[in-house]
Amino acid sequence: MVDFSLKGKVALVTGGTYGIGFAIAKALAEAGAKIAFNARHRDGIDKAVADYKALGIEAYGYVCDVTDERQVQELVTKVTEEVGHVNILVNNAGIIKRIPMCEMSAEEFRQVVDIDLNGPFIMSKAVIPDMIKQGGGKIINVCSMMSELGRETVSAYAAAKGGLKMLTKNIASEYGHYNIQCNGIGPGYIATPQTAPLRETRADGSRHPFDAFILAKTPAERWGTPDDLAGPAVFLASNASDFVNGHILYVDGGILAYIGKQP
Ligand code: NAP
Ligand code: GCO
User: Fold this and answer.
1) Is 195 in the pocket of ligand 2 (CB under 6 A)?
2) What CATH number should be reported for the domain holding residue 247?
3) Of 34, 85, 32, 58, which is closest to residue 238 (Cα–Cα)?
4) Each residue's pLDDT tens digit, 81-106
5) Is residue 176 part of a domain?
6) Is the pTM of this model over 0.85?
7) What does the pLDDT look like over 138-194, one tens digit per residue?
8) Does the pLDDT value for residue 1 go beyond 90?
9) Is 210 within a domain?
10) Is residue 189 flagged as an active site residue?
11) Contacts of 254 (CB under 8 A, 6+ apart)
């Protein structure tokens, strides 16, 4: 029988306070995993712990900025002591800055790359040694349409997510020998706080033009929801994907396959 169960596993989800991270953590918990998560703000973590509890999930929340190597080392030590050895790492934490490239400062570019690419590197480097000792593990990197495509104003984000795709392939290559599988999930356009500015309803009742644009580029003709990522995440976190390595699983309603609705 195909084994999708995560019973007895410990999953660490970065940026698990809301949005995609929360939905993925919820799905992994429902499949049997114990959940640890981190974010930068204590108030958001406390609210998320209550939100998980309301769903019957006992989640362990920690303040940790994924770009800070010392904080990450402390996080992994605490999770290992208080929850258990990390069997599944989901590198979900990420930001975006929508600024035309020539108007973006080098510092703003660095901030996005630091969180979206350096963060997953730092987190993965912190958990891999113990995964090797435990006989293997799963790393899931949350990539993006921008791992494959560009668009105006998201140069830093696309560069980071493109790099994250290749970091995923390299971790798979370098650590597959230790029974560590590293794969990516590439969400399409998902309704979360991060994309709220692209979906806003304006004073005149009209929707942001990007909304119609994305619906015309998506065969499913809808925005994704964070829960659309639940099944793919459980698959990549479970033994059912033990021979899947270095793959980016796009969960995009068909955007990458589609030239776009004819006018
Ligand atoms: P979101 O709603 O903005 O949530 C981001 C999460 O990451 C929050 O929990 C945030 O909490 C945390 N975070 C941000 N910077 C952090 C840092 N330096 N250290 C630790 N935690 C940090 O984003 P989302 O839409 O759920 O997206 C989650 C991931 O999916 C991101 O990697 C994003 O690039 C990717 N993605 C999103 C979409 C989409 O359409 N929404 C599509 C494809 C890929 P704090 O701010 O409190 O730290
Ligand atoms: C944007 C969006 C996208 C999504 C996602 C698409 O401004 O284009 O924020 O980048 O967040 O990454 O997969």
Assistant:
1) yes
2) 3.40.50.720
3) 32
4) 999 999 999 999 999 999 999 999 99
5) yes
6) yes
7) 999 999 999 999 999 999 999 999 999 999 999 999 999 999 999 999 999 999 999
8) no
9) no
10) no
11) 218, 219, 220
Identified catalytic residue from 157, 175, 189, 250: 157
With a 6 Å cutoff on the Cβ, whether 146 touches ligand 2 is yes
Nearest CA to ligand 1 atom 17: 65
CB 75 near ligand 1, within 6 Å: no
Q: Which tokens go with 242?
A: 């033990």
Cα 66 to middle of ligand 2, angstroms: 20
Contact (Cβ atoms closer than 8 angstroms) between residue 163 and residue 146: no
The string of pLDDT tens digits covering residues 119-134 is 999 999 999 999 999 9
pLDDT band at residue 65 using 50, 70 and 90 as cut-offs: very high
Domain limits at 63?
A: 10-191+226-257
In-domain check, residue 203: no
User: For ligand 1, what atom is nearest to the CA of residue 19?
Assistant: 26
Ligand 2 atom nearest the C-alpha of 157 is 10
**How many structural domains is the chain composed of?**
1
**Position 202 in a domain:** no
Ligand lying closest to the C-alpha of residue 185: 1
230-253, pLDDT tens digit by residue?
A: 999 999 999 999 999 999 999 999
Task: Kindly tell me if the per-residue pLDDT of 2 is higher than 90.
Answer: no
